[in-house]
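Hey, can you fold this one?
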Amino acid sequence: MKENKELKEALELLEKEKDISKETLLEAIENSLIQACKTHFGKADNVKAIIDRETCNFSVYAEREVVENVEDPALQITLEEAREIDPHLGIGDVARVEIKSKEFGRIATQNAKNVILQKIREEERKVLFNQYYGKEKEVVTGIVQRYLGRNVSINLGKVDAMLNENEQVKGETFMPTERIKVYILEVKDTTKGPRILVSRTHPELVKRLFESEVAEVKDGTVEIRSIAREAGSRTKMAVHSNDPNVDPVGACVGINGARVNAVVEELRGEKIDIINWSDNSALLIENALSPAKVICVVADDDEKTAQVIVPDYQLSLAIGKEGQNARLAARLTGFKIDIKSETQARESGLLEEIGYEEGMEGEFDNYEGFEYEEGYEEGDGGYYPEGAEPQE
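Sure. Predicted structure:
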């Protein structure tokens, strides 16, 4: 049998361009033919439509019972008419009567066309949803389309996403056609296609950006254990190495700050503090408060509270501008941190209470020091690559 070349090519093109399987399209055509019969004859319970998967030739037929007296022409056929189709048929048998699709009326044909188009749209939505649902919690590059009020429409390729005002970094503005990286928060399936919400403020955005820049993070050698972020201003990130020969902070910073610089550039100058993770709560808290120097830390793991004593001249640095350094350290570690200067601690009797004496710095937390690679300079409580101006 000669193949239906035109239909076959059309199906293969749809499969390639819209990623809709050929089998799904063939089933849609079969259903549309049955729908056309229902429109044309008033019923189609006994109608079958079959398409050859190789040649794409199709046939439509009605199954009619062979009877002596026909009461319902749509469901029954006389013995004489049945034997014209197959001489071996007898009373009670079922005859397959071919239906010529060319005989369908305009309305039946239009309805059949609508059934096919509706199925294509449904499958297209399903394909897009599955494609982007698999990217949920990932970072993608999008192109800024336009502002919709205070929200921003971002094109991700085959579909647009929405960057809502509360997911935008304060002070960030975008120009149409500008390429930006966004974190996919949520993908919802709707009748109009997938609805995608993205973010520029989520802490995971920083984590995913480091995964793309740092091979050791991507392969699991270096783990990002915790992140605390105030978007547009500063991020603190605690890292741990599963390989004793790999320095986790150095791996994330890169040679001359190249790796962290790429992330900072994407975040438009946001400061990034990278510290060593420690299972020792006191040491972790001390690291989290860097670059401030700490005299001692007394941490209560059960209550998740910590008393921190710093030299008098380091108090403002430990607390940070508007309390930011202490606030981020608390979020990073999960501890409620109370910071006191050495003078305050001495006057309140805290130093005597914990048994601190001159020259005992470090005995309470096994502090091993905190260093950054060349190319980093100390700012107002943070470290950032040279030339990267933090947003106010």
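Residues 106-133 form the longest helix (28 residues). Let me know if you want another pass with a different chain boundary.
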